[in-house]
């Protein structure tokens, strides 16, 4: 099934609201029929009603889960990284205050598991490589010092470049109608890799003040 914003919104309502309501209602009716079973003369009618209710609920639940199969597969990839709301029972929870202002590479790649996002290259300002310490690589941009670790960014040295090359990317929506249900139009930019000239590999740097995060 095509993943549209309408399909996503409908699936959320079905899975998070209608399905729990139908299960709860079914359980209440089954409980009532079971409790009254000793007090009715024709117990078979209660038993038949219980069976019918169970079958109906099974059909409803199966239909909802079948319709929302694609949604349920993709749902784990919708998070505070790429969405400002979270679907809850009968409502949405605002999680915009938890947004990742500087998502790392893994977050962008996870967002790309959602078929309505695509990867685009970003143009970045030039960096000057200052050197490295045991834990960080340091760069200068606009006369300010920044640092970057290698936990989520590939940093390498190459003889093929004579200046710092930054590979920065973003995930952007291919269908802006998803913004109506809280998805961000853009996730990123984030740095995927940095390539530094090989002849600068031996440089060391220890900042006098705390640098910014690149």
Describe the fold and architecture.
The chain is of the alpha+beta class and 214 residues long. It has helices spanning 5-35, 43-67, 69-74, 105-111; strands at 85-88, 91-94, 117-122, 128-132, 137-141, 144-148, 154-158, 165-173, 186-197, 212-213. Strands 3-8-9-7 form a four-stranded mixed β-sheet, covered by helices on one side. The two termini are 40 Å apart. The mean pLDDT is 92.
Key words describing this protein structure:
214 residues, alpha+beta, 4 helices
Oligomer: single chain
Rg calc: 27 Å
Q: Helix and strand succession? A: HHHEEHEEEEEEEE
Structural class: alpha+beta
Indicate the overall shape. Answer: elongated
- How many individual β-strands? 10
**Per DSSP, what share of the residues sits in E-state strands of 2 or more residues?**
25-35%
Mean pLDDT: 92
The tally of domains stands at 2
Give a short account of the largest sheet: 4 strands, mixed
Keywords: Membrane, Transmembrane, Transmembrane helix
Transmembrane segments: 17-40, 47-68
Describe the secondary-structure layout:
Blueprint: H1 5-35, H2 43-67, H3 69-74, E1 85-88, E2 91-94, H4 105-111, E3 117-122, E4 128-132, E5 137-141, E6 144-148, E7 154-158, E8 165-173, E9 186-197, E10 212-213
Parallel strand pairs: 6-10, 7-9
Antiparallel strand pairs: 1-2, 3-8, 4-5, 5-6, 8-9
Helix pairs in contact: 1-2
Outline of the structure:
This protein folds into 2 domains: 5-77; 102-213, no CATH class.
